[in-house]
Amino acid sequence: xxxxxxxxxxxxxxxxxxxxxxxxxxxxxxxxxxxxxxxxxxxxxxxxxxxxxxxxxxxxxxxxxxxxxxxxxxxxxxxxxxxxxxxxxxxxxxxxxxxxxxxxxxxxxxxxxxxxxxxxxxxxxxxxxxxxxxxxxxxxxxxxxxxxxxxxxxxxxxxxxxxxxxxxxxxxxxxxxxxxxxxxxxxxxxxxxxxxxxxxxxxxxxxxxxxxxxxxxxxx
Length: 220
Prior knowledge:
Blueprint: H1 12-16, H2 23-27, H3 30-38, H4 42-63, H5 67-83, H6 94-112, H7 145-155, H8 160-171, H9 176-183, H10 188-203, H11 208-215
Helix pairs in contact: 3-4, 4-5, 4-6, 5-6, 6-9, 8-10, 9-10
């Protein structure tokens, strides 16, 4: 499964508007951009959509292989955001805020369709099949297919929460604080331990260096 996909949906306002997001909206920090969106700015909405729709679609495809379902939920999600904008909470970090909210919608839909969930487990999230492809990495990096398959295989040996944490940390660039926000942990240290545990398991397969070489060294 590729982590990169073209955006499957376009909000009507973005598709029909003669205005692109202005330089002011594009240059805002995330807190100001989100506040502008909450106050009714269409430019801010379009900016947020363009910046995060593809990321959310990629994320949704890690939770379920049903791409059509992900597209439908994503479309409904942005419609919901647009209609309820004035009632949304404040945030200075849009990506984890959206991932957390979108994850809830995906989980609810999978629960409704009885996919990847078990009643006896309290509908705990059971599957997070991170898989890398050559599309995942930058074109100017030389990637050995055998190494890529080795890393994919190692990732599948992690439990679902470890894979999810590694996905956020390395593939989406979330901080420990942002990962804690997505998982709804009370303490940032819980997110740090989860990432550490995943990396410790990956060390057994001698593939941590592959993560570092593909996405750059990152403190952990």
